[in-house]
Amino acid sequence: YNQREKSRNASLIIQMNGKSTEIKDPENPSAEPRKFAFDHSYWSHDEFTERDDGYLEPASSKYDDQLKVFNDLGKGVLENAWQGYNCSLFAYGQTGSGKSYSMVGYGNNKGIVPLACEDLFKGIADKRVNAKKDEEYQVTLSMLEIYNEQVRDLLNTKTLQKGGLKVRQHPTKGFYVEAQTTWPVNSYDEINNKINEGTRNRTVTPLYILYFIYFSRAHTIVAVSFVQKSSNDLGQNMTKTSVINLVDLAGSERAESTGATGDRLKEGSAINQSLSSLGNCIKALADISMGKKKVVGNKLYLTLISVPFRDSVLTKLLQNALGGNSKTVMIAALSPADINYDETLSTLRFADRAKAIKTQAIVN
After folding, report:
1. Which residue range forms the structural domain that includes residue 347?
2. pLDDT winner (highest mean) among 110-114, 152-156, 182-186
3. How many independent structural domains does the chain possess?
4. Active-site positions?
């Protein structure tokens, strides 16, 4: 949802019908719109009414509210977590397109992260009513951000050091952040307070898009570790572990549209570079999933593809989510305004490549 675009009275170039998304070129209105198909297409720009408590509810069937998005995406992530799969959900799009609104929300319009945490503890409470003696449920939380290729622990700012926390590689678990803190949480209120604390510690910057407003200038990763301990029918102790990664990426942007200079230009360049590395990884993974082949003369060659996860801190930490042991959902946030045509089309192409990736998730 992007209220700023409405205030400018910009022309809308996006149309959504079911699972289809169409985009028109504002400089060539007579041309056929480009069409993209996804698992879901949500319209959250207008066609809503605001209740007394501040919640934005549908005024027509066109508008998809926060609860609709959570029921389609967040509940599926939680179901996978209960089964013992690693899960990842991340949001991609340009600055101001609504990524943080979808992931975190605003006021009573809760996003996927708080709704998922609330639903998780409701499920644990229901399970504990009829739980056996050896049944146990544990939830821990960590929250970090990647700013200018440096990793900060948002729940323990004392760990901040020159160059940030170090990213190491484990032979079986892959990349991880050394010295990152994890906090045990026993209720929704506890985890919500911790996430709010981490959100307050995020790096934000005033940018000029339609007027000065603060935007997050770092990638944020919330990791919820969920452990279930119980015994099977043979009396053996069993443990299922799931890590739920909820990722709010910093927005891609064009320097000329934000008026960024100096440090703002430098951090924008670092963001775009890491997102470019993410795009290269997604392209390589998509090619692998589709079994990319090359024909030379009458001979067919299989192309050996290397995935450049090491090109940025972001792609290192998202390696498992994109190409490893995880069930992954991606949200592509779009601006429907004609002034953002290039960025919106780029996001649609990015998402179109990402949907070709196939991951191999197993129960932990």
Report:
1. 3-356
2. 182-186
3. 1
4. 96, 98-101, 248, 251
